[in-house]
Predict the structure.
Amino acid sequence: MAVADITDMTEAAAQGRGEYRARTRRKIAILVGLSLALCLSFAVDLAWGPARYGLDQVVLALFHPDAVSAQVRTVVWDIRMPVAVMAIVVGAALSVAGAQMQTILANPLASPFTLGISAAASFGAALGIVTTVPLLPVAAGLIVPVNAFIMALAATLFIHFVSQARGVTVQTVVLLGIALVFTFNALLAFVQYLASEQALSQVVFWTMGSLTKATWPKIWITLVVLLVALPLFARNAWALTAIRLGEDKAASFGVNVRYVRLETMLIISLLASVPVSFVGTIGFVGLVGPHIARMILGEDQRFFLPGSVLAGALLLSVTSIVSKSIIPGVVFPIGIITALVGVPFFISLILSNVRRSW
Amino acid sequence: MVALELDGVGARYGKRLVVSEVSTPTITAGEIVAVIGPNAAGKSTLFKRVAGLLSGPGEVRLSQSSKGKNSISYMPQDTSANAVLTVYESILLARKQGSAWSVADDDLTLIDHVMTALNITEIAFRDLGALSGGQRQLVSVAQTLVREPDIMLMDEPTSALDLHRQVEVLSFMQAQARQKGMIVLIAIHDLNQALRFADKVLLIADGKMRACGDPLDVINPAMLRDIYGVDARIEKCSRQFDHVIVDGVAA
């Protein structure tokens, strides 16, 4: 068919519109499905443990606490709830941080873990545990998370400012991140070498990443950061999607690429460093969460953003359940399980849907 | 009616002035201007300057445009993309920049019309990464068109297309310019297409404007020898379009 006049189309044109609307409805259905799966996973996480409850009991404990025994109420609300909620909030935060890192750096390997932010946090935490020297004057109980946060923030900002320099490519930034991982791991080893036996075991446990460190203040802080970040990302949804088409193309669409990158990186620095400073190194969520969302929803940020939130939250929530299920009565550090659960899941997704991967 | 004029325009990368002293007569609505010149002459840089993506001396005068930020749409030369987006989504993306999340039927209708006109409806829901170079170029043309600008800057929009498609797309752009009163600037290496479709030709070499005017005033044997280093003639084809016949490399 020859190139035709734009104003001379009718029926053929409507087909694309119909298909687009159908695909949009399908994506919304997937997001609803992920939300339901997350609710189910959350309920199972509350029910699962040394004492196992039925889902009906959990629902009763959640919505009519007086209708269940004091023991069930205490276990569900005081013991399991902070861990289950922290899993969701941290999973969502790390996944969104990874998603936006991958977006603005145009690199599928970018995540808080691979760019050295988690390693920086581990070093900061180890410094706090071993030397008890705070990087900021804070209460004794907050030395470890605050030190971890400051080091993670410093690493993120370092990556950002280097990435802004002229002539620096996205590949350079990723290599720089890998260099940061090695650097902070070496510093961590140095601190561990100097540590007492007791401090060493604390450092090792911290670096494994564990949700048992969850407390309500930590949950609220992480949640507030997430709730501030999401609307800011949502406001830039079209611009962030356009950046994935390349800097020139995004700029040609009228996107202020430099400004959007700066704003996004600053938000990411908070989003990545806050949860890591509270729960330690949880390595796989920031990488896999966004990839799952991308494969099933594409990269239109209107769907990719909520998809990353839900995929990351679901991944860590399921992992939380698994961490309690391997040996009854023992809760494994979740950082170990994320890799064990995440890697095969990731590989199977890639193999079953290669064309839609990065 | 929209009008464009460049007055002593230059463009900088950092502190380095890459393009300088580009001035044109007033370009009026409906006109197509072919921007020609050897490789690395500064054509793309000039487009980025006109689009506001680079700074530099001189003035880009745009009059009678009411579209503000959206008055100029620039189609970059590099059309490659590995984003996990369908063709349709990527065109919608160009249309919706800076606006709300919701997508109106009017937006989709315009996209459908542009895709139908460019004959790319068959690839509407294919991933961008699965397209050929020519298909990517057509998608890029569609992205530029759906922004409904007053001025389109197209950087080698037909370089990856077969001959048939080149003539189709350039004919289509010419018709669009006339119908909608747009100004279209096209950076192009094919001087025959420039002679056939352009109302004016702007020649750039070594970052400086060498000539700007009627196609046959700019594209002539002397210029072809001086700028391109070839011996060539201009002759008419069977349909009375002017064509460049290259005899060989100039001695």
